[in-house]
Amino acid sequence: MTKKADWELIESKNPEDNRILERIVLKKDFTRKGKTVPVYLVADAWDGKYINDTINQFMQYNSGNDTLSVQADDRTLKAGDQAHLIVYIGHNALMDYVRTNRSQFSNIKASKDNLVNDAIVLACKSQPYFSPQLEKLGSHPLLLTTGLMAPEAYSLNAAIESWIIGANDNQVRKAAAK
């Protein structure tokens, strides 16, 4: 995503949490309403054997219950539940819980102080599995999928680019699909 989409790599490190293999921070300047706005993207690469923890963390962020502060570019970035956009990319493990124990994520409750965040889930058939939970948590399901897919960075980049300039939900979805 950094080379073709002109995102600048600000930092790459291994966090203390051994479930997370790498955390990167990217930055790109956008023009919004005639002003240049720096946008930061904090991305964690989770070890696949912790997929349940990964989805649980994504849900916690969307519920407003877990803040993540990241030092980068001589500033503190408020990520986690204070991010404007929270994204999950990967396997839709919630499909697996239809047959097993999908309820592990249903016990997460929205914080009364939850800021409404937009959420993107790039995973196979994410809409029917993630949307009801995200709405319950007070998060806005901006871009989810209805079919099988291989999540790629260019889809996320297109969605972010249209979202940051103020596109509506349908325009964001069309940009990602294109």
Question: Quick gist of this model?
Answer:
The protein contains four helices and eight strands; from the N terminus they run E-E-E-H-E-E-E-E-H-E-H-H.
How does the SSE layout of this entry go?
Blueprint: E1 8-13, E2 20-32, E3 35-46, H1 51-63, E4 67-72, E5 75-80, E6 85-89, E7 118-122, H2 126-136, E8 140-143, H3 153-164, H4 169-177
Parallel strand pairs: 6-7, 7-8
Antiparallel strand pairs: 1-2, 2-3, 4-5
Helix pairs in contact: 3-4
| Intertermini distance | 16 Å
Fraction in helix = 25-40%
Give, in order, the helices and strands: EEEHEEEEHEHH
DSSP strand count = 8
Largest sheet: 3 strands, antiparallel
Q: Over the alpha carbons, how many angstroms does the gyration radius reach? A: 16 Å
Could you list the spans in which at least 5 consecutive residues all have pLDDT below 50?
none
Classify the secondary structure makeup into a structural class: alpha/beta
Estimate the global geometry from the Cα principal axes. Answer: globular
Total of helices: 4
**Average pLDDT, to the nearest integer?**
90
Biggest sheet: strand arrangement:
1-2-3
Percent of sequence in beta strands: 25-35%
